[in-house]
């Protein structure tokens, strides 16, 4: 096992650990640990809400989810010799849940959760159709996830970090804040909000204290969106065996990561989220000096995905076009066409006995594939969502004999405000 350079104790809060990580982006958050190019090391990660979501049958904790506290990130890790303009090579050697023998609130993390955020507290991809909070607990056995809340389904996880990235420069951070505020200003009272501005409340900034803390907390970017530094990209294929090339914007690069997922569908459409869990990740890092210029990687990471995807051979696919549910025509709106494809799939799965919420959770958590199939055929874009048929323990394809009925089981009551 590689040396654990960033250990976490599952029985303690994020802020009571040996190294306190962070939950905002800022160049002045000090590095916790320094590693060298060529090093291999292990990092522990808390689940993104630091244990606020419980293994039970109520969605109240999702309804009341403390969004100002996310994402709790491990790091920053300084890479010796890294300078602005370099490319940081990060290899994901291994990644998995917290080992079973650990104790504490995330005990062994032989489980994870997928939630639907309430429209008034987070929202999500289909928030107009699903305005209330909902939660599903998934249990892990080896690589397989099953849920007492979604009968008839089991699938192989594609474990990956939802969030990993380098620190922004002061200039880049300024650009983020300006452009996101400009978007917010177009509709400042929108629910859910258009973007999340810096928020000092609940900011965790490593070892910073006093006046420095206050200054940085007022400027630091929230971690929800992916940006030029990588960040919360939620790419399900960033699994074991992946090699990622991050642009370096500050001395030492200041790599941070977290938001581990046992599995996720393309789009992470439920927003809260994939199958969220705490765990460990083994990394190898190296540098390409001056690599941003050499390879034209001026902004945003590039990567080579891992080669340990689950092997599903048969798929049932649903398509959608850029027409609203009220039959209003939109112009090549691929976000809308993916929503329509997902709603189409949800309608279909309810014919087998699932509640709409259960079907939504399957799309958020199982290794479904999403594609922009057509983006030029005016006025309709065409998006498609592919569901592996092998995740169901019944025949999910249409047939003359009609849909098999699953017992929808206990589910979880929706939690309303
Ligand atoms: Zn996540």
UniProtKB/TrEMBL annotation:
<protein>
    <submittedName>
        <fullName>Formamidase</fullName>
    </submittedName>
</protein>
<dbReference type="GO" id="GO:0016811">
    <property type="term" value="F:hydrolase activity, acting on carbon-nitrogen (but not peptide) bonds, in linear amides"/>
</dbReference>
<dbReference type="InterPro" id="IPR054833">
    <property type="entry name" value="FormamaseFmdA"/>
</dbReference>
<dbReference type="InterPro" id="IPR004304">
    <property type="entry name" value="FmdA_AmdA"/>
</dbReference>
<dbReference type="Pfam" id="PF03069">
    <property type="entry name" value="FmdA_AmdA"/>
</dbReference>
């Amino acid at each position: 096992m590689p040396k654990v350079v960033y250990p976490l104790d599952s029985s303690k809060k994020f802020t009571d650990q040996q190294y306190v990580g962070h939950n905002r982006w800022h160049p002045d958050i000090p590095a916790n640990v320094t590693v060298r190019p060529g090093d291999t090391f292990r990092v522990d990660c808390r689940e993104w809400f630091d244990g606020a979501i419980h293994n039970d049958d109520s969605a109240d904790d999702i309804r009341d989810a403390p969004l100002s506290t996310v994402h709790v990130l491990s790091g920053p890790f300084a890479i010796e010799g890294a300078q602005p303009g370099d490319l940081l090579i990060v290899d994901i050697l291994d990644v998995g849940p917290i080992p079973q023998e650990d104790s504490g609130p995330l005990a062994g993390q032989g489980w994870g959760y997928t939630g639907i955020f309430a429209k008034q507290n987070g929202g999500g991809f289909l928030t107009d159709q699903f305005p209330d909070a909902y939660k599903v607990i998934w249990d892990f056995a080896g690589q397989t996830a099953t849920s007492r809340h979604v009968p008839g389904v089991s699938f192989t996880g594609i474990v990956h970090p939802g969030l990993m990235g380098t620190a922004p420069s002061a200039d880049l951070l300024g650009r983020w804040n300006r452009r996101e505020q400009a978007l917010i200003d177009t509709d400042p009272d929108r629910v859910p909000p258009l973007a999340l501005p810096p928020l000092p409340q609940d900011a965790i900034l490593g070892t910073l204290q006093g006046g420095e803390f206050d200054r940085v907390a007022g400027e630091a970017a929230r971690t929800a969106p992916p940006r030029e530094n990588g960040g919360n990209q939620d790419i399900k294929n960033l699994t074991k065996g992946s090699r990622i090339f991050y642009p370096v914007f500050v001395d030492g690069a200041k790599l941070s990561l977290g938001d581990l997922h046992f599995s996720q569908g393309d789009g992470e459409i439920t927003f809260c989220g994939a199958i969220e869990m705490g765990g460990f990740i083994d990394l190898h890092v190296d540098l390409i000096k001056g690599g941003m210029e050499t390879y034209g990687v001026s902004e945003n990471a590039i990567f080579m995905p891992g080669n340990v995807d689950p092997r599903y051979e048969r798929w049932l696919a649903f398509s959608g076009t850029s027409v609203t549910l009220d039959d209003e025509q939109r112009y090549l709106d691929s976000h809308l066409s993916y929503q329509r494809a997902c709603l189409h799939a949800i309608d279909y799965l309810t014919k087998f006995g699932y509640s709409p919420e259960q079907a939504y959770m399957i799309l958020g958590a199982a290794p479904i594939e999403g594609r922009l199939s057509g983006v030029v055929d005016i006025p309709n874009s065409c998006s498609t969502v592919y569901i592996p048929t092998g995740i169901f323990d019944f025949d999910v394809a249409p047939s003359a004999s009609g849909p098999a009925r699953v017992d929808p089981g206990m589910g979880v009551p929706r939690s309303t405000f």
